[in-house]
UniProtKB/TrEMBL annotation:
One of its GO terms (cellular component) is cytoplasm. Its EC number is 3.1.11.6. It comes from Microbacterium bovistercoris. Residues 146-355 form the Exonuclease VII large subunit C-terminal domain. CDD domains: ExoVII_LU_OBF (cd04489). One of its GO terms (molecular function) is nucleic acid binding. Pfam families: Exonuc_VII_L, tRNA_anti_2. It is found in: Cytoplasm. InterPro entries: Exonuc_VII_L (IPR003753), Exonuc_VII_lsu_C (IPR020579), OB-fold_nuc-bd_dom (IPR025824). This is Exodeoxyribonuclease 7 large subunit. It catalyses: Exonucleolytic cleavage in either 5'- to 3'- or 3'- to 5'-direction to yield nucleoside 5'-phosphates.
Length: 425
């Protein structure tokens, strides 16, 4: 709770009928009435305090109002009583969800032991004050990079399932469903209802966002509500909600209010739609447009293919019209005689080379035969070999009993030396 001004006047001494801890004991306890009276007299000295908060409960009974106010940044709450005389002096449009400043004085009801605050004045928080706080928060979030376009996730071309967070039976829900189904009749939704204003707006929207973001079948999430005054749209500038949307793994579309409404959710969302109807149109493709696009692409492909085939046929006809391809026989006939002449020349050249090589081979064979030991053997000579293969050149090398091999023109025979030596001729 934010305290703007306090006018408490501390008492110098408790009233005579008040009680203090030293005035009571287990043997001499004080009464409940005296204790309550002491509390009443004590809190009565606090005076009037100006306090800021959000109205969370507003019940009218016989002209009086019994309400509750909560702090905007914590769960702290107080009870308020507005008597009919004061109710006539404060704005008539006050109610649950309003952000107000009130002049309150502590009041302790002795009979029931209830503690509450009596309201002597109450007013809406000035819009300028709220906008100033929002702009400070906007600057802080921008400095952290939460508005950076590079971190925004692209939307799927055709989502299999759309997550929708909106008020139950709201016009925003009807607008999104109707326009999405007109564009793509097979579109599927998973809708999570949440309060779209008041103290339940932020926690219920956060819970719905968490459920949808955890569903793998949901490809995109739309947060939608109809238009409203800046006071009713404050929940969609709440820092907790804005940071949760920035941290979501699923792309989020903000469709809050009308074109001129600009909560912080618009800046951090992956896509800002001007209205719920605009969100449906930007999330779901138009089936008619897609069919027309496919027809257009088919026509382009047909035209390009027809042009390519026609071009290739024209090139083929042009090639076939050339003399060499139109009538190739004269060219073949004119070259045939040349091929025959070259073939004859080649055969004659090969024959001459073969004859020359044959004669050269015969001459070499005759020379080889004349020099060959085989020719000598053919004339009746023989060659004697010792057992180790050495040619016997001296009879002294073959004493009696030496085994010899005698090679003649046609084969070899075994012999043994008798040791006799004859004189050569």
């Amino acid at each position: 709770m934010t305290v703007f001004e306090a006018t408490a006047v501390p008492g110098e001494a408790p009233p005579p009928d008040s009680v203090s801890p030293r005035d009571s004991s287990a043997d001499a306890p004080t009464s409940v009435a005296r204790l309550n009276a002491t509390i009443r007299d004590f809190v009565a000295q606090w005076g009037t305090v100006w306090v800021e908060g959000e109205i969370t409960s507003w019940n009218q009974r016989a002209g009086n109002v019994f309400a509750r106010m909560k702090d905007g940044r914590s769960d702290a709450q107080i009870s308020l009583r507005i008597w009919s005389s004061v109710r006539a002096r404060i704005p008539s449009d006050l109610g649950v969800g309003d952000h107000v400043v009130a002049a309150v004085k502590a009041d302790y009801f002795v009979k029931a032991g209830d503690f509450s605050f009596q309201v002597s004045a109450m007013k809406h928080v000035g819009l300028g004050d709220q906008l100033e706080r929002l702009e400070r928060l906007r600057a802080q979030l921008r400095a952290e990079g939460l508005f950076d376009p590079s971190r925004k996730k692209p939307l799927p071309f055709l989502p299999h399932q759309i997550g929708l967070i909106t008020g139950e039976k709201s016009d925003a829900e009807k607008d999104v469903h109707r326009n999405a189904e007109l564009r793509w009749p097979q579109v599927r939704f998973r809708t999570e209802y949440a309060a779209v204003q008041g103290d339940r707006c932020v926690p219920e929207t956060l819970a719905a966002l968490k459920r949808l973001d955890a569903d793998p079948d949901v490809d995109v999430i739309i947060i939608a509500r109809g238009g409203g005054d800046p006071q009713t749209l404050l929940g969609f500038s709440d820092e907790r909600l804005v940071r949760a949307v920035a941290a979501a793994a699923t792309p989020v579309v903000s469709a809050i209010g009308h074109e001129n409404d600009h909560p912080l959710l618009d800046d951090v969302a992956d896509l800002r739609a001007s209205t719920p109807t605009d969100a449906a149109k930007r999330v779901v493709p138009d089936v008619g447009e897609q069919r027309a696009l496919i027809a257009q692409l088919r026509a382009r492909a047909t035209t390009r293919l027809t042009q390519r085939v026609s071009h290739d046929l024209a090139q083929l006809a042009q090639l076939r019209s050339r003399p060499v391809l139109r009538s190739p026989d004269p060219i073949i006939d004119s070259r045939a005689q040349e091929v025959l002449l070259l073939s004859a020349r080649g055969r004659d050249s090969v024959a001459r080379r073969l004859d020359t090589a044959g004669r050269t081979t015969s001459e070499l064979r005759a020379s080889l035969r004349a020099l060959s030991p085989a020719a000598t053997l053919a004339r009746g000579y023989a060659i004697a070999h010792l057992e180790n293969g050495t040619i016997l050149r001296d009879a002294a090398d073959a004493p009696a009993g030496t085994a010899l091999t005698i090679t003649v023109d046609r084969g070899s025979v075994a012999a043994r030396s008798d040791g006799e030596v004859s004189e050569g001729a």
